[in-house]
Specification:
By secondary structure, this protein is mostly beta strands. It has helices spanning about 5-20, 195-200, 220-225, 315-320, 455-460; strands spanning about 30-35, 50-55, 75, 90-95, 100, 105-115, 130-135, 140, 145-150, 155-165, 165-175, 240-250, 260-265, 270-275, 295-300, 305-310, 335-340, 340-350, 355-365, 370-380, 390-395, 405-415, 430-435, 440-445, 470-475, 480-485, 495-500. It contains five helices and 27 strands. An eight-stranded antiparallel sheet has the order 17-14-19-12-21-26-23-24, with no helix packed on it. An eight-stranded antiparallel sheet has the order 16-15-18-13-20-27-22-25, covered by helices on one side.
């Protein structure tokens, strides 16, 4: 065949294919037209080959009318002339912004038919879709596909489902915990919801801030703030601290003056207000009050670091007045000083060797400083009747609601063991009482080894050295406490009352 014949033959083939129309009756009376835009491999159509459905009969799947079968144009992705549209396999579900949804907020869901080649058609009208919650903290989905997230205590997965035209799809969302204190009955209580759920589960009254399920003296709020286990009594930080100490007894002369002691623990200096009280006690019905006390402060070497008689004569009298703790009588004494950690002794005497009932007090004015009173003690002559030894201390605020907290203390009454230290008239057999701020007796002891807490006292390292001495170990909540030391059988002599703060 010559060159002219070849050209004519090729033109004839091209004209015939372009004008070809094929009628297919396999799906009923529907007809399909193939437009030969391009020819793919093996004579099949390429991606740009189009076909149209006139919608005259059975529709796209040959099983009934389909709204998508009305004169719509579809692209045959692969295959040959006459290929049908790809099959619908499922619904692809998506959320308006992203798959991360903040708790208590909403997100618009949508669903689009998914083809078997993983491409999608246009999204369906959400009101034609049946929405449902499969699992997780989605509280509702409206008929138009608006999903509302619930509250969570940690980031939590949630799955939703969409169904339409016998097709189904699911979407997993991540509900984000954006408020750590908003879960149900635990909301706005000052404790992280996840902490409460970890130890107590959800909606458990034992998880409430003021609850104390393990009986260790610290509430859940305090244990949360301290990082301890609220259901383990051995995991505890007793968060309160002593704010002031005091001892009242009859101040005599010589070795029988009133001697108080305290230890400041920690690393930082602490501002302390010390008072020697006498005349003011008369207003409270105390007979024979010490008329003019003088006050000495000694460091751990015994050196005197401050002396005062009549607080208004102190060089920092204005600071004492501004503290709100100035003595009520001008003859009473006051020392306000910032003290580094260490042990200190306070001595109260009567001016001119006078005698009478006196009171020594030490107040912690540096409550924001980590250092604290580690122990307090007072030595003096224990008499009978109103002249027994009366020690007091206040346990300050802790980490619980409204400053609630607790302190673990050992209170001791010492007598016979003073003799080796040169005290010849020591109280031979002291007994000890501990009272709360209302005057109620909360603990008693005579002879520490006979008490129920003997083993625990021994383990604390603070057991008295003489079996006739007394000791009480107690966890006490914030408040005021009084320790009274008496002699058995109205015995009298020099005694020592001590209170130690334990971890």
């Amino acid at each position: 065949m010559n060159k002219t014949s070849n050209i004519l033959a090729a033109a004839l083939v091209a004209f015939t294919f372009a004008g070809m129309a094929t009628t297919v009756s396999a799906l009923g009376s529907a007809s399909y037209s193939i437009y030969g835009d391009a020819i793919g491999v093996a004579g099949g159509p390429s991606k740009s080959v189009n076909f149209s459905i006139d919608g005259s009969a059975m529709g796209q799947f040959g099983i009934g009318a389909n709204p998508m079968a009305s004169s719509a144009a579809y692209s045959a992705i692969f295959g040959f002339a006459g290929q049908l549209p790809n099959a619908l396999t499922a619904l692809r579900v998506s959320a308006s912004a992203s798959n991360n949804l903040n708790e208590t907020t909403t997100s618009q869901l949508s669903a689009a038919p998914l083809l078997d080649d993983n491409t999608t058609l246009a999204a369906l009208d959400p009101t034609t879709v049946t929405w449902s919650i499969v699992n997780g903290p989605i509280v509702s989905i409206s008929t138009n596909g608006l999903a509302t997230a619930g509250t969570v205590y940690q980031d939590t997965a949630a799955t939703v489902s969409a169904t339409a035209n016998n097709l189904r799809g699911q979407l997993t969302l991540s509900i984000l915990n954006v408020n750590s204190d908003d879960l149900g009955s635990y909301a706005d209580d000052g404790i992280d919801d996840s902490w409460q759920v970890q130890y107590f589960g959800q909606d458990n009254t034992s998880a409430f801030p003021n609850a104390e399920p393990d009986g260790d003296g610290e509430t859940n709020l305090s244990e949360y703030r301290s990082g301890t286990n609220p259901i383990d009594p051995n995991s505890v930080v007793h968060s309160a601290r002593q704010l002031n100490i005091s001892t009242r007894l009859r101040v005599l002369t010589g070795e029988n003056v009133l001697i108080g002691g305290f230890i400041v623990s920690g690393t930082d200096p602490k501002k302390i207000m010390i008072r020697g009280i006498g005349p003011s006690l008369s207003a409270f019905g105390v007979p024979e009050a010490l008329e003019n006390p003088v006050l000495e402060l000694h460091d751990n070497t015994g050196a005197i670091i401050a002396v005062n008689d009549n607080w208004k004569d102190a060089p920092n009298a204005s600071e004492i007045s501004n503290s709100g703790l100035a003595p009520g009588n001008d003859f009473e004494s006051g020392i306000l000083q910032s003290l580094p950690p260490g042990s200190y002794t306070v001595v109260v005497r009567g001016v001119g060797d006078t005698t009478g009932v006196g009171l020594v007090e030490a107040y912690d004015l540096g409550q924001m400083v980590p250092s604290k009173f580690a122990n307090i003690s007072t030595r003096g002559f224990v008499d009978t009747g109103d002249n027994v030894m009366i020690g007091g201390f206040i346990v300050g605020a802790g980490l619980g609601n409204n400053g609630s907290g607790s302190e673990k203390v050992v209170v001791r009454a010492i007598g016979p063991s003073l003799i080796p230290f040169g005290v010849t008239n020591a109280l031979q057999n002291p007994t000890l009482e501990l009272h709360d701020g209302n005057g109620n007796t909360i603990a008693l002891n005579d002879n520490w080894k006979e008490g129920a807490q003997a083993a625990e006292i021994q383990a604390s390292g603070l057991a008295p050295s003489d079996d006739l001495e007394s000791a009480i170990l107690q966890v006490v909540p914030s408040g005021a406490y009084t320790a009274i030391v008496r002699g058995i059988g109205n015995g009298a002599g020099v005694g020592l009352v001590e209170a130690y703060n334990l971890p």
